[in-house]
Design a protein that fits this description.
The protein is mostly helical and about 375 residues long. It has 16 helices and three strands. The protein has a three-stranded antiparallel β-sheet with strand order 1-2-3.
């Protein structure tokens, strides 16, 4: 038996014991990825800590401490906050529709005094918590095939539609795909999956042609044929592919990436940070960071499987699915295998809001590990 299994229930409540239950391998992997992101911010700025590297490192340090603090929060508090967090996030999304700040043609931000933030980022956590709370009290039959599937569908559809209307296709995709992944993990019947997947596949071309905004449609069409306009709509993907290919096996060297240093690579510190890394460190460097991402995902899913509560299992699995989708979509995007939808590489790319969301999610994952023996009551109520 493990030492944690032999620990008396009363002793498990001590902060020192809880602190010892944190998976420090997991934290170390996050530090490697976050530290690599800071190093790349320094490099793409021409060997300067400003304007990105200092902020990236400070934000990561703050978020890491916050994640460790959240890991000590009892799972019952996460459980009790699930529906309220979702409700607040949904109200904030509605507020964006009424009084949101418009930038670059999109209304995604709320300004409260000096603070400006995107409620859609809060909703990424809200959807995971609400679905985990719902499935904790649902029977296997209800999760597999029942009229009650309307509840999780509504939990996903409401924020998906609001975020898509902003428009923010990348975040809407993450919310929808995360929700779908959680429904699948919960045991959704294959008949339902087929009944949804087939009509969706048929509807996608019509949505691209008639439902998308013009610039979104151009992104999709450019993805299909970037060479048709390499200096216009296909510029981002073309330059990203050049950066990836020019890195070769070992890369051009730290700080020596011509695409990023000579300003050919657009959004080199955000959406295309992975392309900049690949140019400087080559296949070996990019494959190594992807292995770190894979290890993070596998450890997080392992933590989910060890929880004694269904809420813990579903919550940790949902957070991990969101993180995996970030990596998958951004990786495919910079390789030209998916349209450019503005999804960053988590912890590697510059951006405080995404980093905060990811690390809050991992705070839940660590809380599930620390409190994996906690049993939670059944039911869907708010208290």
């Amino acid at each position: 038996m493990t030492s944690s299994a032999l620990t008396r229930p009363g002793e498990r409540d001590r902060l020192s014991v809880k602190f010892g239950q944190i998976d420090w391998r997991f934290a170390a992997l996050l530090c490697i990825v976050g530290g690599t992101g800071g190093a790349m911010m320094y490099s793409v700025a021409g060997g300067s800590w400003e304007p990105w590297a200092t902020n990236h490192v400070i934000r990561f340090g703050f978020c890491l401490v916050m994640m460790l603090g959240l890991s000590l929060v009892p799972l019952r508090l996460w459980f009790g906050a699930a529906y309220p967090v979702y409700a607040v996030a949904l109200l904030l999304l509605v507020a964006v529709e009424v009084a949101g700040d418009t930038r670059m043609g999109a209304t995604r931000w709320l300004e409260i005094g000096p603070i400006s933030f995107q409620p859609s980022e809060i909703m990424k956590i809200g959807v995971v918590l609400a679905l985990a709370r719902y499935y904790h009290g649902a029977s296997a039959k209800d999760a597999r095939l029942s009229w009650k599937l309307i509840y999780p569908v509504a939990i996903i559809a409401a924020p998906f539609l609001l975020v898509a209307h902003q428009p923010d296709l990348g975040t809407a995709m993450l919310i929808g795909l995360t929700g779908a992944a959680m429904m699948f993990i919960a045991g959704l019947d294959w008949k339902v999956i087929a009944a949804v997947t087939i009509p969706t596949a048929i509807a996608v071309p019509f949505y691209v042609l008639f439902g998308m905004h013009g610039y979104q449609r151009n992104r999709v069409l450019t993805f299909l044929s970037p060479e048709s306009d390499p200096s216009g709509t296909g510029y981002h993907i073309t330059q990203s592919k050049i950066a990836l290919g020019s890195g070769g096996l070992l890369g051009k060297g730290y700080g020596l990436g011509s695409q990023s240093q000579l300003e050919f690579l657009p959004e080199k510190h955000t959406d295309f940070a992975f392309a900049a890394l690949s140019e400087e460190f080559g296949f070996v460097g990019s494959f190594s960071i992807l292995l770190c991402y894979l290890a993070i995902i596998l450890i997080a899913f392992r933590i989910a499987s060890l929880s004694h509560s269904h809420f813990g299992r579903m919550g940790a699995a949902g957070v991990t699915a969101t993180f995996a989708l970030y990596v998958l979509i951004n990786g495919a995007m910079v390789m030209g295998l998916a349209p450019v939808v503005g999804v960053p590489m988590p912890l590697l790319s510059y951006g405080g809001t995404v980093m905060l969301t990811v690390m809050i999610g991992f705070g839940l994952v660590m809380a599930v590990r620390v409190h994996r023996y906690t049993e939670l009551p059944k039911g869907h109520g708010l208290i």
